[in-house]
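batch job 7 of whatever, protein = Phage tail protein
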Amino acid sequence: MASIINATDVVTSLNDVVVGCAQSMDVTVSRTIDPATCSASGGWAQGSPGERSWSGSIGAIVRVFPTAEEAVNISYKDLLSYLVDGTELDFDFTLGGDLGERYGGKAYLSNLAISKPEAGVCTWSADFTGNGPYGLIPNA
């Protein structure tokens, strides 16, 4: 029987560090369709599969860590450095916790925002542009 994946069963990581307090994560995989219409189509549009690409985004609660915890956490400060330095990152997530399927690829951080509401917690959101293949990552 199929298993339903709840949001709490999805673990998102950057460079093998879990993004704690992540509130959202999205991945979009696309493929262009190049026009390939000829007279034999009777006027119907035809296409040929072209380039593949992917992008992702993560949203999380803003947290500041003591120095001793910085290496095992992702902070807004880290993300800003990745964006400014143009650092290529490993973007991945696991569906179903530690025993689930893991998907991901290499990506660059392309947009970073921080939000302070009138009440409640501050959040950050980050957009990523894939750099190369995306897909199922085999279990080690």
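notes: The radius of gyration is 19 Å.
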